[in-house]
Amino acid sequence: MSKQARYCVIGAGAAGLAALKTLTDEGFAVDCFEKGEQVGGHWHHDYDALHLITPKSSSFFDGFPLPASYPMYPSRELIAAYMCSYAETFGLNRMITFRTAVERIEPLGERGRDGWRVTLSDGAVRDYTGVIVANGHLWDQNIPAVGKGYTGRSIHSGSYRNTSEIEGRVLVVGFGNSGCDLAVDAAQSRMDVTIAMRCGQVFQPKTFFGVPRGEVAALNALPPELANMATMSLINTVFGTHENYPGMPAPETYDLEKQPPVVNSLLLYWIQHGRIKVAPGLRAIDGKRVTFTDGTEGEFDTILWATGFKTTLPFLDTSLLEWRDGVPLRTAAMTLPTTLESLYFVGLTAPRGAQWPVYCTQSRLIARFMKQREQGTDDLAERFAGLQTADSRIDIVRRVWQQNLDETTRQLDAIAQQPAIAVETESDFVV
């Protein structure tokens, strides 16, 4: 390994910490830059009611389980404390420059073949052998254009903390996990709550028979199609169908691989208790008056926008990447861009299930790419762009992501043995 080689990690959230720990363990010299004051990213400022939807038995960094004292589904505060403990235990803080943002990264040589020039918010300019992008995809808030006409209190889920910030009649727009959490939070404070659902959704409990849903051995032993049927049977036994919940539309599909379920039991509970009402999608907003797609109207004092986030790389000229659906195209278990060398992504994907193991796995794979490059194998991003079908998805079935990871490992093994010979793909990265 070259003594001159040095790498930059952008961000000290969960993905950045996994990259920093893994790469330093592999002997790489790494600097990490974090614009905030501490590690942990959004876990320090997300809404107070947030808990993991994956169990503690699978939700941890490699070699550092969550404390035995933690409940099965820990709170936001406990997870933030866990990540601070991880950084302290392994001495990661000394490699992180806090309160310093990466303002710009520029490729050196053709497509980054000679490394990257990094400009920091304090004005410093440094050259690095490679850059690991771990700035996350849950921070650039997306509010639809229809919201511009609203004159009441408007809060995105990324800024919401608790019910002390909201008042009066509350409309929650968005019915994913965050939207349902926010609606339940307001309902449990005895507020008048409506949730807008433009289409139906399958709801799934966190546990079956008291066991985390991903750890039910009988389901895990089944092939995907049968596992889906069995899971839907259990869901219908526990919750019934959408017809049991006034105003709720039918799901567009019952194939859980095509549309991930919402992991929430309490929303359905409060709908049946009349604390949460269901409305269709939004057509227009004028002042505080909202018109829904079925022609009905209502006045709301607060709108909570659980409408997701945009994928943003503010430090990179976006024209250097290939994009689809607002997300960069990637290969190799979602770690390599298709057009740039010595640039790597950790955490710009969310295979269903616990995420920390994904970040650690991606970081180990990146370490292999970095070693291979330092040993003289050039243009790895270009090679894999030719070997695999590039993908832009963030949400992806875990099994499909794992298949691509296995394929990537096989191809990288072959490149390491004989770099000049390309390896044929066995399958496209599709489901």
From TrEMBL:
GO MF, one annotated term: flavin adenine dinucleotide binding
UniProtKB keywords: FAD, Flavoprotein, NADP, Oxidoreductase
Pfam families xrefs: FMO-like
Keyword Amino-acid biosynthesis found: no
Signal peptide: none
InterPro entries: FAD/NAD-bd_sf, Flavin_mOase, Flavin_mOase-like, FMO-like
Family (UniProt): Belongs to the FMO family.
PANTHER family, per the entry: DIMETHYLANILINE MONOOXYGENASE
Protein's name in the database: NAD(P)-binding protein
Organism field: Paraburkholderia madseniana
Highest classification ranks of the organism: Bacteria, Pseudomonadati, Pseudomonadota, Betaproteobacteria, Burkholderiales
